[in-house]
Predict the structure.
Amino acid sequence: MSEDARARRLYRWLGPAIVLVIAAVLRLWNLAAAHDLMNQFDETYYVKDAWTLLNLGYEASWPPGANDSFLAGDVNVFTTDPAFVVHPPLGKWIIALGMAVLGPGSGWGWRITTALLGIASVLVLMLIAKRLTRSTTFAVVAGLLMAVDGLAISMSRIALLDTSLTFFVLLAFLFVLRDRERTMARIAETVAARYGGDAPPSWGPVLWNRPWIIAAGAALGAASAVKWSGAWVLAGLGLYLVVTDALARRRAGVLFWPTDAVRQGLATFTLLVPVAIAVYLASWTGWLVTDRGYDRHSGGNALESLWLYHVAMYKSTAGIISGHSYASPAWQWPLLWRPTGVYYHNDAQGVNGCTAPSGCVDVISTMPNPLAWYAGVAAVLYLAYRFVVVRDWRHALVLTGIAVTYVPWLFLPERTIFQFYTVLILPFMLLALTFALKDIAGSPSADRYRRLTGQRLVLVFLAVALALSAFWYPIISAMTVPYDFWHLHMWSDSWV
């Protein structure tokens, strides 16, 4: 093996490895800094629900003052009465796993699994980017942007459900991408073999041997078992598979390609959806095998009771329209109008070692890197334009990711929702941004001056983005900083 080949091989491993180390340090360092349950947001519910799941198999109620008792180390004050919850249990089981290993005594126990899935999401994003861009460098760029992004970091450092949801959705997209790599060629080869002279075949193959679709179904079942918004991704990716199969059959020359796509669509549905449903139902095992879960005996049997419970959950979530100081409808999200502050603690000078005249604060804000965010919004529009012009399937996959994670929220203008939900959209925005940066860097066929200029622009962009991430890190990680330093970050009144 030549010296250049060895260097390239080392870079293929070392570049992503360095990004993962950066992601791990930023997510794991001082993870328990905020010894709180974020009672303004749902960490207060998910942690205690997870602990009762671990102990009882179902979510149970807690007495008044339970947060203070839990934080003081008295974690077993829960009752055996069932609690009504509005999210499926898998995300809470994931939180419970960390407490089972590290104990519930600090944020390390109830946040570690979320942090690990946040790190794993960076890895999966790089795997997707490598296959889409065919470049280790730009896979590293995509991973680095997510590794240092404030939204991705902050949501990995608190025990909410959205990072777990993001991991499973990214995993499903990776599996669909793997399926495409093997399926498109199989369709073309099979159809070509069926040609009778110049006459195209009437029908193409119905492909059942698609293990990556089954894997994607399992991942999307897990996503839906974390939050129901995973079902939107299941529907959207299912539609994407049907459309791409149809177009592949048309390109291959199948005469009745629309009908042929319907035949394959039924097979794809059979491969994708039942396994998703099975995984989703499996997440309810604790509720099904115990007798005291909420609404456990509301129906004639366990499955009917589970259905009635889901009806109650749906009615409850559909009615969440109460005001909240950090509420932000989906149309505001691209503008970054109202980032969510999930934790804020302040001390006056002289209290708890604070020496700043203005006082000190510990803050966790789910604030994305502002440069990468706004550039990502612009890149999504650019990618949509490029798709119209060149019809690149890679652009279509990224735009599908944007559509299934963002568009459904636009149809819920009255719901109380928050900017931090965009952590699920963020990886696809960063993929769009990676494509845009790759185009700016220039193609290998461009002249030297064009390539050099483009690469310098990309390096400047990345340097500024990294500097901004370093500037914002203290106020997304609950570091103790002077109040004036925190206020320097409030570039808009709507961010306060």
